[in-house]
UniProtKB/TrEMBL annotation, chains A, B:
Source organism: Sphingomonas edaphi
Keywords, ordered alphabetically: FAD, Flavoprotein
FAD-binding PCMH-type domain span: 39-220
Keyword Flavoprotein: yes
A GO molecular function held by the record: catalytic activity
UniProt-recorded name of the protein: FAD-binding oxidoreductase
Swiss-Prot/TrEMBL GO biological process terms: respiratory electron transport chain
The keyword GTP-binding belongs to this UniProt entry's keyword annotation: no
Names of required cofactors: FAD
Lineage summary: Bacteria, Pseudomonadati, Pseudomonadota, Alphaproteobacteria, Sphingomonadales
Family to which the UniProt record says this protein belongs: Belongs to the FAD-binding oxidoreductase/transferase type 4 family.
A Pfam family that the UniProt record links to this protein: FAD_binding_4
Source domain of life: Bacteria
InterPro entries: FAD-bd_oxidored_4_C (IPR004113), FAD-bd_PCMH (IPR016166), FAD-bd_PCMH-like_sf (IPR036318), FAD-bd_PCMH_sub1 (IPR016167), FAD-bd_PCMH_sub2 (IPR016169), FAD-linked_Oxase-like_C (IPR016164), FAD-oxidored/transferase_4 (IPR051264), Oxid_FAD_bind_N (IPR006094)
Length: 472, 472
């Protein structure tokens, strides 16, 4: 620890108390590496205030002393967004002790939640009040609200209620100048210039440290049904989704996967079995819910709508879950995909991309063809949130597989995927953000945009106090 | 016209054509004054490109020559947001020729609209497709989409679908560096850093010139019913609103007014009559809609819910419109309020303020008491969008009335109102924005916020090219 960092740590200890500092290297260690083990940083202390005034105090001190801070929640970033720089110049500012659900307002259907609350815990807290926070994702047992807001998180249930941005009514944050921005004041209408709330959502902790958020809640689920569909193509899948959405607003999930991915799961994950007999080029998982007993049951609704789509030849075959256990079994196949793909097919470059929804089927086939032609022997696999125009686009090494394929050829493959996405008017980061991983690619492909982002960053955080090296 | 402005005008004429410039003072005149006649500016030309590339070209030229531009749509700002500076240093950039509804996507329920499209025309265009754009306001016959997005406009129908920000899916704009930001690309998920779209919404044309927007549409109204309620207090009005919202999500309007305001309308506007017999301290207008014939009819729904509220003593008396003509008659009372108040009670300082919704009843009575005590003889009147926590808070001169009351005492009264609002955690601009009118007050009351806004402005528009003198 350099003397300046030591001064900061001493000040924080004396003003807030022993518990506000972790300096034991063994305790710090797990927080220096991102959760996929790709980025390793150094930080000689973790500061962990437990209230907004304490966060403001830590930030004011860090600012005076010129010590950069890396805000961290559950450390579940997929792009190295919460890993400290490897030169040890920054300390980690953990929000994990700010873990209170401050209030749940049943009438207004919203909750005020501190940044360190783990998503799964929020789900349980609002469920106890008969309500639901709809956003969910694989890392829900670790990911915290502050990080989810800071990255405008997505997940498997974005279709109906949108990503985090659509669920945030206000943000409380400490800005680089040490002031507290209070966006939880409950104003439905406020036109006092640029929205600081909106600027902080998705800013990856580079403009302010989010300490709490006011989040929308929705009615609890009364019942749900999950259908598994066999389809001839992604175009058929998209037509199916549009047809369902035209008839009901209760479609909460729509995920697609190719046949070989299904079979990778069946081969790799014990206890799984194919939901449908026979083979289909593509599969889709559809979830429909009801909020009360007066609504047509999800099972009846799905049966009615899917019957018509099978009759029209848009859906080849379909089965609807007959129990909650079967619904879970269908979702388990989807949730095991990444792991099964990796185990079955070996290394692959992975891309979290989006294009306009209606263009996705054509993009998937055209881009796959182009990549496989440019890198003979590779194989492209796309799966995921078709209904959001967001596919996880994997390029497997295939016949080119070697010990160092990912390191050697991965970056070139990724560049080409990103070029194709950009040419299609898409985004090289649909839900994971930019972090460390995509910073150079963003600058290469969107230089105008990066210039604007950098100008904003320099304006609000001129000394680079927050999350150095990320995003901009 | 100074030589630099003349060069810009000549260049625009030669590159885009004669129609792109208005230089006749008589034609310019109406656009130099805001629509309430409070601010007068000077500008020796109006530039009016008709496409996004033309806007980009005009802005690139203006930037090279250092001529500031005042973006203007329908010029309906309530705060002088579109009036040029009075030193003649800027030219007006009118977006009115960009008046195409580019596309209406019925399946996706959205539309791409150019900045110069007048709100009323958009309503008609989407109605022809069986859809509806829900935002509406008094100036709908003049206000344009670019201005409505740039000011995050509100209005009388915000309750259900939110203000403009909630209805914008993407923004196309020319930034000060001359680049075109294309937020209409149709990406549902895009996490490439700070949201430029969100930064431009409500920025009052100071960060970019909006050329088009992608807007959400909702189903057309199949039927509606409007009820007029007599109430004992604003607290009773709020309880009524909460009770209705707990039972249905189809409440689209909820406006309150005091008895004397109703009687001002009845006395001033011919053909109006009191919807209810007897006197009530407060009145509320409630609109409920249905999107299809399968839903319980709005009349039945309102009758059922209001009957219960009358039985509980929350609502004193109520009448439901028995025809569309009667529904219109109820709304006409509401829409005539400002005019009738002015004609009946003379000058008043007017404040477009918001506080947390649940605090509004107490704020209205406490603030009225404080103002009337500080300025004996004045009388406070509040009316409007209670359901949004947004009231138009008028302080009438009353016994202090004199020729120059507004000019003499108005600013002091306004300061006190704004102090009370700020102390209550509210906003001094709920829906009208800051413009010229509230700039000094915003700086007085929210200096931290103004510092952040100025930093962003300086970062993105360092030479002050766009809308000089507004907001920051």
């Amino acid at each position: 620890m350099n003397p300046t960092q030591q001064s900061l740590v001493d000040e924080v200890r004396s003003r807030i108390g022993e518990r506000a500092v972790i300096a034991d290297p063994a305790e710090i260690e797990p927080w220096l590496t991102d959760w996929r083990g790709r980025w390793h940083g150094r930080a000689s202390a973790i500061l962990q205030p437990s209230s907004t005034p304490q966060v403001a105090m830590v930030i004011a001190l860090a600012r005076q002393l010129g010590v950069p801070l890396v805000p961290q929640g559950g450390n579940t970033s997929m792009v190295g967004g919460a890993t400290p720089p490897d030169d040890g110049s920054a300390l980690i500012l953990s929000l994990r002790r700010m873990n209170r659900v401050r209030a749940i307002d049943r009438a207004a259907m919203r909750t005020d939640v501190e940044a360190g609350v783990i998503l799964h815990n929020l789900h349980e807290a609002v469920a106890a009040e008969g309500l639901r926070f709809p956003l969910t994702l694989g890392a829900k047992g670790s990911a915290t609200i502050g990080g989810l807001v800071s990255t405008n998180a997505g997940g498997t249930q974005v279709l109906r209620f949108g990503p985090m941005r659509a669920l945030v009514e206000g943000v409380e944050a400490v800005l680089p100048d040490g002031t507290v921005h209070d966006g939880l004041c409950g104003l439905k209408k406020d036109n006092r210039g640029y929205s600081i709330d909106q600027l902080l959502i998705g800013a990856e902790g580079t403009l302010g440290v989010i300490t709490a958020a006011r989040l929308k809640l929705v009615p609890a689920i009364h019942s749900r049904a999950v259908a598994w569909l066999g389809l001839s193509s992604t175009q058929a899948a998209l037509e199916t989704l549009y047809a369902l959405q035209a008839q009901t607003d209760r479609v909460e999930g729509f995920e697609v996967l190719p046949d070989e991915s299904l079979h990778a799961v069946l081969g790799h994950v014990s206890g799984t079995r194919s939901p449908l007999p026979g083979r289909h080029a593509w599969h889709a998982l559809v979830e429909v819910v009801a909020e009360n007993a007066e609504q047509e049951s999800p099972t009846d609704l799905l049966a009615r709508l899917l019957e018509a789509l099978v009759a029209k030849g848009i859906v080849t075959d379909a089965v609807i879950s007959s129990s909650e256990a079967q619904a879970e079994a269908f979702w388990r196949i989807r949730d095991s995909l990444s792991e099964a793909e990796r185990a079955t097919f070996g290394p692959a470059t992975q891309h979290d991309i989006s294009v306009p929804i209606s263009d996705m089927p054509r993009f998937m086939s055209d881009a796959a063809e182009a990549i496989e032609a440019a890198f003979p022997g590779t194989h492209v696999s796309g799966f995921g949130h078709l209904g959001d125009g967001n596919i996880h686009f994997h390029v497997r090494a295939g016949e080119r597989r070697s010990e160092d394929w990912l390191a050697r050829e991965g970056p070139v493959v990724t560049e080409m995927v990103h070029d194709l996405v950009t040419a299609a008017g898409g985004s090289i980061s649909a839900e994971h953000g930019i972090g460390v991983m995509k910073r150079e690619e963003l600058e290469r492909l969107c230089p105008d945009r990066v210039r604007a982002l950098r100008a904003i960053k320099a304006a609000l955080d001129p000394t680079g106090l927050f999350n150095p090296g990320k995003l901009v």
